[in-house]
Amino acid sequence: MIASTSSRTFTRSLLGCSSCASPRRTLLPPLPHLAISSTRLAIGGPHQSRSSSSSGPAGMPTVATSSLLSTTREAALHTHGLRWRDDESIHPPTKDPDGNIVPGSVPTFVEPSAEDLISVDQGGRETKKMNLYQAVRDAMAITLSKDSSSVVFGEDVNFGGVFRCTMGLADEFGSERVFNTPLTEQGIAGFGIGLATMGKTAVAEIQFADYIFPAFDQIVNEAAKYRFRSGDQYNVGSLTFRSPCMAVGHGGLYHSQSPEAYFLQAAGLKVVIPRSPIQAKGLLLSAIRDPNPVIFFEPKILYRSCVEQVPVSDYQLPLSSAEILQEGSDLTIISYGPPLYTIEGALHLLANPSEDIQSLVPRDLRGLKVELIDLRTIMPYDIETVVNSVNKTGRCIVVHEAGKMGGVGSELAAEIQQRCFLKLEAPVQRVTGWDTPFGMIYEKMYLPDQVRVLDSIIETMRY
Amino acid sequence: MLSRASQVRVLASVARTTPRAPRTAARQSDARSDAASLSLSYTKALFSTSRSSHLFPLTYLSHSPVFLDKVASPDSSGVIPAFRLLDGQGHVLPEVPEEWKKQLEEVPEETWVKLYKSMMFLPALDTILASSQRQGRISFYMTSYGEEGVVVGSAAAWSPTDEVFAQYREVGVLVWRDYPLSDLMAQVFSTVSDKASKGRQMPVHYGSPAHHFHTISSPLGTQIPQAAGAAYSLKLSPERKGDCVICYMGEGATSEGDFHAGFNMASVLGGPVVFFVRNNGFAISTPAAQQYKGDGIAARGPGYGIETVRVDGNDPLAVYLASKEARRRAVEGQKPVLVEAMSYRVGHHSTSDDSSAYRSTDDVSSIKKLDSPLFRLRSYLEARNLWSSELEEATKVEQRKSILRAYAGADKEKKPAWEEMFGGVYGDREDGGLERHLKEQKMEVKRLIGKWGESDMWKKDLERHDGGIEAVKKW
């Protein structure tokens, strides 16, 4: 590790751009492109016959067996869009009174290079098997160790958190920096704003996304508008809310919600939802360091079930950037969070329908080339990637757990309609939760499952 | 932590003693000595101290239920007294202990004079700006009439680097901190020079990092948990040792959930903060009697384990000294302290309000006549030969002149460039630009103005802003 770091530093100094703002490559030749970086879902491919660990026809991928996940060190180190963050400080660039960026204060990002892939013994980057809560914890541990002004707080975070995301952090960094608050969401949000406006890096936890609403006023009226209303004199850019979200199997009304669309109108706020441990760590570190208040919703069903090799170093993944998980030319499917794995299952059913549904799955669709997009940042979202894809495929489905009316799908469908009007060959479909509260024992039919996604694919293609 | 066995022993020993006597006696004698150090009979203040150990929820046991409906106070009247030094005529009350008289004398004379001048400045400013609202030159205004002593008296007690979170009727703090009058006018008139909000917020929503005055926002009570967070930040920042957070609010705002959240968080998590409640009797039309049933706001402080004092808000000397003491305790204890200042909102709630619809003008004018903080302080200063009618007149003329000068300057200025409508929503991207969707919407505005800008529907409005239509065309 040491050897590698110094050689990277040496490369940087050779290039003379240790304070350069733009991402850059080292002098080493680029790696041969790995198949996993752009086309991760090889539908119908031989490796798809892995046995499934849960319900569904044999061979149907689940979160445990998903090909969306990076199970090898090589794949993890070549996560699309990953940039290493090797400097010690995480503060955003400082500006002089004239608004110019002070040289040397710019964060140094490093593009992944061939030397990352050499063995760990020889100084290559290390990865570690982590589930999603461990990856989230790792991101917070990096923040706490690199940024002395950072604090982590919320209900029950001191003992490790009800989902273990803050395990051991209080022991490691002290109870003054990792602490419990009284049970008050509006208080937690306001308290975080107060910390952030004083220059502290505040990582606040709302125990369940369902309970973020008491803090709605502080988040929407205060945090989101803080910079704008003060003529840029004050801001709460160093504030991040983390909150477990979405269905978990038996969460009922108040342990299942996906409230992301409620924040779509809160100009000034960012909303991010990861799909996996690598994504969670990289996006959370970006969220914490972004100069804006960010709500980071963590799909709680993935906390333990979703396991990847995760780079141990400090790295970031870009916000407001969607990721194409699989390239295709016939149909675009856009989603975020756990439904991505549902879609993977639906695509498996489409390619290999089990006997009972073969008559319902048209033979000519079995080789369908689907482009699958993970939106990742809900706000401000990456419309370019979406539009480029739909202009290519002419058809689009949006999938999310939240209800349909006024959901993220509505926003995307409207934008796609406006920007891809002449290219669209079918109406934009929304496969979402129903516009009901989240009834506990109705979860199976409430959520967009593999069958509903499959049906939507067939209907869209048959339009 | 005590072991289970020793907890039981403690419980048993507490249960054996007469239920209330020992603790109540201790509390009362402590409270008495606290109170004695502040004042006697008529002029009283109570700094209560939380001393519960929280080993278990019950602090003592009783064999019959004890119902309480009042806060215990030294004279057992059940009402927390207000700390007062001056009578309505501005004479130091005869009952005031020597200690407090001495403290009054120790305050530098120029502090009292500056305090009075700053208090005078408020009605001068308010009269001009409220009437300019009536003439339609500004869209909105809120006066400080009647609360000059509350706001400036407390402002004088803070250190200049104390972080202030205000509600909206605390411009006196900025006046005390010598906030440039031109900046103040720029905010109220939303001119191109408005640093506080770049024309984005309504008038009186001031803010200035240079004056450690956090930008005001309209939602009530939101600043209270924010102040708790800021106080915690100070606690973690060795370089800010000795500084304090000051959080102002009206008695109406204390009914918001954020009040409870903020007080509880500040108390549990610590950090130096003075919560300062301006209890002026009204929240718009709602009298305090319809706001709460308890003994005002001060009575709530001890419930949160927060040291509390109530003060006569029309007595600027008492406000100043009590605030100073509250601040000292907050900083030394790295904890919250509550001050409730009792006063009366003499003016309307805002320029959008006619208070004669819900209270008699006679009441207002009799209070103005009988109990004016300005009159009280002026008499006190005159008795000490620190002020005179000549000084009064000269200061009035000088203040009015400077206000009118700044007013005329701001009235002539352009509004901020249209570009500011899109700025500051998000922090700069790495490429220094706007977020994608805002850039697109900004270009849409450019297109629209390019096409329709010269029409009668838009032209006049567009040209009022810095750079006008031409600046937009260059986007």
From TrEMBL, chain A:
InterPro entries: THDP-binding, Transketo_C/PFOR_II, Transketolase-like_Pyr-bd, Transketolase_C
Region (Disordered): 41-63, 80-101
Tree of life domain: Eukaryota
Catalytic activity: N(6)-[(R)-lipoyl]-L-lysyl-[protein] + 3-methyl-2-oxobutanoate + H(+) = N(6)-[(R)-S(8)-2-methylpropanoyldihydrolipoyl]-L-lysyl-[protein] + CO2
Names of required cofactors: thiamine diphosphate
Start-end of Basic and acidic residues biased regions: 83-98
Keyword Oxidoreductase attached: yes
Protein name (record): 3-methyl-2-oxobutanoate dehydrogenase (2-methylpropanoyl-transferring)
Lineage: Eukaryota, Fungi, Dikarya, Basidiomycota, Pucciniomycotina
From TrEMBL, chain B:
Organism, as annotated: Microbotryum lychnidis-dioicae (strain p1A1 Lamole / MvSl-1064) (Anther smut fungus)
Family: Belongs to the BCKDHA family.
Any one GO molecular-function label of the UniProt entry: branched-chain 2-oxo acid dehydrogenase activity
Alphabetic keyword roster: Oxidoreductase, Thiamine pyrophosphate
Keyword Oxidoreductase: yes
Function: The branched-chain alpha-keto dehydrogenase complex catalyzes the overall conversion of alpha-keto acids to acyl-CoA and CO(2). It contains multiple copies of three enzymatic components: branched-chain alpha-keto acid decarboxylase (E1), lipoamide acyltransferase (E2) and lipoamide dehydrogenase (E3).
Signal sequence interval, chain numbering: none
Record's protein name: 2-oxoisovalerate dehydrogenase subunit alpha
Domain named Dehydrogenase E1 component: residues: 116-417
InterPro entries to which the protein is assigned, alphabetical: Alpha-ketoacid_DH_E1_comp (IPR050771), DH_E1 (IPR001017), THDP-binding (IPR029061)
